[in-house]
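**User:**
Everyone, produce one record:

**Assistant:**
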Amino acid sequence: MKPAAFDYLRPSTVEEACQYLQEYGEEGKLIAGGQSLVPILNMRLSTPECLIDISGLEELKYIREEGDWLHIGALTRQRDVERSALVREKTPLLAEALPYIGHMQTRNRGTFGGSLVHADPTAEIPLSLLALQAAVVIQSAEEIRAVDVEDFFITYLTTDLMPNEILREVKIPTRHIPKGYSFQEYSRKHGDFALVSAACVLDVDEQERIASVRLTLGGVDAVPVLAREVEGLILGEKLTDSLLLEASRAAAADIDPEGDLHASREYRLHLAQVFAARVLETAYHRAVLGKGSAT
């Protein structure tokens, strides 16, 4: 099947793109990498009146550090983020997550912001950014506003982005870079959507007790999930085998995933506990090793 007929516009500035969005409203769709939108158009699950091609907006393609923030433009290719030395230095969790996205051809075309806007609950970028306490910057013809990633995702394939708005960039705080991190996921084969994924950033004090932790889970709800119970359970403690088991159970206790043709509800719950334990253990050991190398 091929897409329904549509008008095609190619703005030369973000402001021009915002004007088109204001004009067409919900009948206008932005396209950049097209890795998510083109299949939807081909299946006629969406039949917009107009496609607004923003792939040529060079002002939204960058990776740079300013003050205590790492800024990544929304149209930066995923492969460029994956290969960035600055990303590896400032947000190693994100660098570890990027290679899990599809295949290299996917990442060569897919944009960093496109993954966020598509809001698939199994996607690697949203899950990582939730763990990293990132924020997104959104622009319309009237204003520019910032939203925490934690508040950006509303439900499955739905975000806080309005029809007349465009995602400009992602901001990741870098004032304190956790020494412990881990991203892991399980899929039927490499390149498939994850059945369950997990991300963790963690730091320890001089006595190797956990000083901070954020654990996130994907594929277990309509949006990426922050496992809040884990923080209260393990802060101030050394990560023993018994505590790791208790924490992984706590991470899976308050989620209620749906079963589908790929995995039952019970299997996803099992995977959530297994991968919560794996990322916690890996992040903790990296934090302990990082503390030792810094002294």
Observations:
- The longest helix spans residues 265-294.
- The domain at 180-294 is CATH 3.30.390.50 (Enolase-like; domain 1).
- The longest strand covers residues 196-204.
